[in-house]
Amino acid sequence: MNSKFLTFHKDITDEYSMADKQHSWAVIEKQEEIIMYGPYYPDYSSGEHSEDIIIKQTQELLEAEDFPEHWTVYVFSMNSPCLARNTDPCMLNLVHKARDWWSMYAVKTHIGFVRSWGFKGNKENLFKNVNYRQMEIITHCVDYTSYIESVDKMDDLSPLCETVFSVAKDLLRAEQLKFPLISTEEKQEQKTHFKSMNCMLESKQEDEKKLLTKELNMLVEAAHLLLLGENQSLEEHMEKGKVFSLTYTFSSEVCEGLREEMRVRFQQCWMVTVQDRCAEFVREKLTAEFNQRTVQLFIEDIHRLTRSYLQIGKLKL
Ligand SMILES: [Zn+2]
Questions:
Q1: What is the 61 CA–ligand 1 centroid distance (Å)?
Q2: Total-model pTM
């Protein structure tokens, strides 16, 4: 299945340069001819997913033929067809259609994808409770029992289930958990970081406020370069921020007292940024793992019923 998809994928990417974002295309393979259609992209404003177009097109192509017997339909989707949305999810729609096409035309269907989307992809929020404090406790506890004991002592934390605990513990134990401080989408909006430093301005006189605002803006701009650096461990990121705050050159108008205050504020701010990002990274990993397992379990289940006419699988491109 993989090699067929690879050949089609090469043909279609030679013709269209597709980005990494979600798209679908399909191929109908006849005895002596192949028909390719797509790529199609989702239109989220109207709630249309790219697989919706594929299903419609395939249906039309099959209906237009007198004897579409023993053909094979190949459906490619960058992300695995969704398992949940506010109307019928694409994965179930495709499974139903594959059954129809098999029973009506003896047409087999193959579905290939590159990334496991699961139910809701990166919008999955099952792990929103895994924050940095949870992670600290997970790291320090030897087992689930001691973890529960620790969490019970805290009023504002609720315990994670054992499975999430052990997967998170494995992630955190991973020799060196290296992560970027900023995701690709965030690169544009630098001003949202270090915003909490602005509370320094509150107690200041007007003229001092002006100078300080200018100085803070320059500091934030310089610090932004630190965020763009390579993947590093939590300790390395922390150290980087500390070194930055100690070696940063303030303008000569800023007195030593203010400099010291800015250094301290910056270090606090930096620590929170790094810890939040570390927790976010672990949540992303948990989500990716969850999505992968979800799709895998779905495929195993559905194959028991559809083995003779439907194959679904992750592709290695
Ligand atoms: Zn979908």
A1: 21
A2: 0.85
